[in-house]
Design a protein that fits this description.
By secondary structure, the chain is mostly helical. It is 49% helix and 7% strand. The chain contains 14 helices and nine strands. It has a three-stranded antiparallel sheet, with no helix packed on it. A hairpin with a 2-residue loop joins strand 5 and strand 6. The longest helix has 32 residues. The termini are far apart. Protoporphyrin IX containing FE (HEM) binds next to helix 1, helix 9 and helix 14. Keywords: Heme, Iron, Membrane, Metal-binding, Monooxygenase, Oxidoreductase. It is found in: Membrane. This is Cytochrome P450. Its main location: membrane.
Amino acid sequence: MLCLPAGLGFKSFGEKGIALTQYGPYWRDIRKLCSVHLFSPSKVEFYAPLRRQEVGLLVESLKRSATAHEVVDLSMLLYDVIESITFKMIWGRSKDDRFDMKGLIQEVARLGGTFNITDYVAWLGTFDLQGLTRSMKKNNKEMDEMLETIMVEHEQDTSKKREHHKDFIDHLLALIHDQPNSPHDEEIVVIDRTNIKAIVMDLIIAAFETTATTLDWAFSELLRNPRVMKKLQQELEKVVGLNKMVEQSDVEKLNYLDMVVKETYRLHPVAPFLIPHESTEDITINGYYIKKNTRVIVNVWAIGRDPKTWSENVEEFYPERFIDNNIDLKGHDFELIPFGSGRRGCPGMLLGLMSVKYTIARLVHCFNWELPNGMKLEHIDMNEKFGLSIPRLKHLLAKPTYRLVH
Ligand code: HEM
């Protein structure tokens, strides 16, 4: 069956972005464009110094907390570091006190995941009984104003620095200013300001919340499972040693880390239902007839907890289950598809996984982690907050101790 994301109960900027846009020439061009400037392996490499710098700053701040024997809000710190990396990649700056970008994105995730009665009883849409349309419009307006300001600032900044260090918004704006001479020019996608806002919004939502939430769950499981934490530290000691920092080039040598990340996604897929898809043709699967244009929701959360696939210890965080199989995250193994599968699968997987693995590696290598105030393992609150993604309900608190030799 060919699938493509269908409309959610809302759409931020119509079908002008990438993630909620129907399959067709526009989606193909935009996806290609994003691949060149953001997702390709060379871009993952290009952003290595940025990741190194931002995660390095986090390590330094944790070292200070360790010296002061402080308990830290690990969830908040993880969201902050991914926020900085994502925003710097996309518009060249990290936090901007003029805008509450994180709040706006989290509101989109909340609204997107709210049960919307209009999806089932369309005529109720006129009444907006749950106030979702009103909230979405307000959110859209704020985002629109914020992105317009950022775009204007990019256009006005003609400094040499900008010429040499173009961010993603610069690349998109160049497309407006260098529109093709001929409509048959296939190399250049014709876009306007609303397209740019929609694409940028999609990318930030797709990149920020997903990566940060993965890290939050990975650390929750590592803290709950000291055996796994210890084994990961042993792997890091063996591959990197205790005298130097982990580098991104070390990441591919860390096999146990790879299994820890897969196991995190099995139990905590960030997008539990992926993005809603739509069948593009009539089809029968396993005896079930699915009509063309049917909305299809894939329950990745349930697949990851199916004892028929994963055996009876399905609730246990047990990375070793990946030792004797070739299951990977690329979307070929349907028992584990946290990044989706096929042509609408996540194009930012390489980028996201590098941020996830590198951050875990650095923090587990540099620090021992304890629960605060003698808290017992079984008291770690593992409840989820339901939305488009499923982050932790409560922040994860922990106490770091520096463990490297220098
Ligand atoms: C590491 C954490 C990430 C996870 C778990 C994740 C997961 C997903 C999932 C489940 C989908 C929907 C796939 C489907 O419905 O079949 C998706 C789509 C998408 N992701 Fe990611 N993602 C991550 C990181 C990123 C990053 C870092 C970026 C960009 C910089 C990104 C950009 C996108 C885009 C643009 C789409 C929509 C693709 C389309 O509709 O063609 N993602 N992602």
